[in-house]
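Troubleshooting entry. Yesterday's outputs looked truncated, so today I'm pasting the complete records for two proteins to confirm everything comes through intact. If either block looks cut off, that's the bug. Protein one:
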Amino acid sequence: MRDQPGFAAGHALALFTILIWGTTFISTKILLVDFTPVEILFFRFAIGYIVLLLIYSRPVRTKSLKEELLFIFAGLCGVTLYFLLENVALTYTLASNVGVIVSVAPFFTAVIAHFFLEEEKLTAPFMIGFVIALAGILLIGFNGSFLLKLNPLGDLLALLAPIVWAVYSVLMRKIGALQVHTIGATRKVFFYGLAWMAPALFLFDFRLGLDRFGQISNLGNLLFLSLGASAMCYVTWNRAVSVLGAVKTSVYIYIVPVIAVAASALILDEKITWAIVAGTILTLTGSFISERKPKPSLKERSITS
């Protein structure tokens, strides 16, 4: 039986993290005026890494190459690929669109965990919910491509982001089982994320441009992303995953669309169309249905009674 206080703390950490992450699309969208996607990514995690190093400087040692590879690929998926896809997507589409689309991450997490972790099996309600949520995502794509005449590439990149995040969640579940320090493990993932990011700095138009940090808006949003959404929230999220598991923790991502859509309308003055509202409702409905557990059969009830 799980330790109830620890279980409750895991839920609290996951909820806190999502409340912060739900507004990161807004900060990134604002920063994209003066920064390129890869610049935001690099500055965000470089600052986050330094902060985590100051908090916990002890090295995190692994016992084998297999364990080290967990950190290497967690850095690739959870830092470099996910946020590069998300940041580039925001240059083509609305922050509200990206916020809703990435909320399908729990579906992909459940599918990958089904094959690589001893998690719960996929059920009929899960598959029905997935189809409904996918219909919502397609409607949001219709909203961007046809109603608002946006480049559909943005919504496609946003859809790829939760797939790599699902892989990251499963990898962090395995890392959590290694009983390593949460902050140290997060710092190690950031390190490999920055290492994977290095080639992209040469491929894309990267420059230090320190004069841009003199603007309060740029500095504030970058510090929010690096200190709050990265250094702090990655630690709280990874801790929640280690306590609750990859699938249960990912369910909290369902809250992201509500926060993202509301914040986009209030802060960025993005137009909320009938398609984005209907798509959000479908996505959330599908998410709710997917989490419903089938009633045990009479035989199963008799066995457990």
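Protein two, checking that the full record survives here as well:
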Amino acid sequence: MVKSGARLLGTALCVALMAGCGGGSQKEPPLENFTAEQIYQRGEYELEARTKPDRAIRYFSEVERLYPYTEWAKRALIMQAYSYHKAKDYEEARGAAQRFLDFYPGDEDAAYAQYLLALSYYDQIDEVGRDQGLTFQALQALRVVIEDYPESEYAQSAILKFDLAFDHLAAKEMEIGRYYLKRGHYTAAINRFRTVVEDFQTTTHTAEALHRLVESYLALGLVNEAQTAGAILGHNYRSSPFYEDSYKLLTGRGLSMEAKGDSWLSKVYRQMIRGEWL
């Protein structure tokens, strides 16, 4: 989004705006004395040549304040969102991106604004503990990019990040489930592994979730459920090391990997293996 001549223009504007850049003895002239384009280019210079997003934000904000409803104000607003994100001020990045979407919903940069809004959630996912609120918000915002701007250059990246965020949610469920399993809280563990099997079937954690269900149900003496979980695992994930582990657990007790009973797992088995959805 930054023009290729920003560095040269910014250098010239550095002289105009700061009376020599290196002098330091003179105050910067009032920005009201400069055009929207000059102030905008100064923001570009701070962002690209001097890599100072905080200083760039000031200039882009001033363009919006001094020259509202102009083409330069529109461009400055999307650059505010980008600069805030680069500075890792995610809340302000979201605010600027949302303002752009509110003011210019049909603009060619609307897809980028929505993508920045989604990134402002996505880039914080690893910073949260067990609270997955930001992950859900990232998924919702990424879905908007995918569904509303499918032909944009950001759609493919949004799809990849959506899958990673979705996998992240499943990983958190598995982490909590394993925690309960190790401490013998089998019912609580089953609830977490069930969530992965039912709601996160497309992630990389389903095979382990089924194996942990085998472990948990066997610990509770619920052999029909354990066998059914093993049947699903054996049908869909035979190449997984978790299949071998479940196979040994079940056959070691004289049990087979086949669907038994009428539990929630039997319904999953009918849906996944037989294609029976009713």
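Both blocks look complete. Sanity check on protein two: Residues 155-182 form the longest helix (28 residues).
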